[in-house]
Amino acid sequence: LNLRLWADDGMYDDTALVEHFLDVQLTRRDLSCMRHIKHLNDEALNFYFKVLQDTITRDNGKCLILNTHFYNKLMSHGESYPQVDKYNYENVKRWYKSENYFSIVDSDKVLVPIHKIGKTEEESHWYLAVIDIKGKDMHMCDSIGGGEQKVLTNLKKFIKDEFNEKKPGSVVKRWKIVTLDNIPKQDNGHDCGVFMATYADLESRNLPFNFGPADIPLIRRHIVAQILSVRETTE
User: Is the pTM of this model over 0.85?
Assistant: First the structure.
């Protein structure tokens, strides 16, 4: 793999690295966030999740990873979906109608990236909400601990509305909200996106969270390698 496409300081422009993977493209500038001490952006994360989802689907898995914009659109009004924190199912009920994957209600597990947008990059934060449809519970994976429990409450409401719309008669009200205490935590202010992406990868494969802060530089390179391997197969 030609990691020089990612590692050289002088190569960050809007040239497309990948143009035709599942109808999305990624530029060198988008991928620059994967370098050390940088926050991850929506473009790089959504592309990486497309790569993971493609692997899941080819392996006949039933885990669905939603777009990073999903939750903010669920909690907003209008086309630009500013974060106004007001639940609106109508905004998202046709979200996956045009996708090539299985539906949310036919999934075993749904992973929802959450982007808490702050006034500055340092005040923003990524974490992951997990909807275990098969196990009928929900939990949060947050690399600084805690997480906003109202997010899970809103997603429980979303799942109820989604099943009522697409599988009437299903019972959602008995689902549990579970707290995860012993998960890997970040030790700086910029790696939350990498932790969130790694949680998603391991959750999608039902694997334990056997990584920590010391592994993050290698994980960044691993994510880039996965993305660039897609580039090579599409050329």
Answer: yes
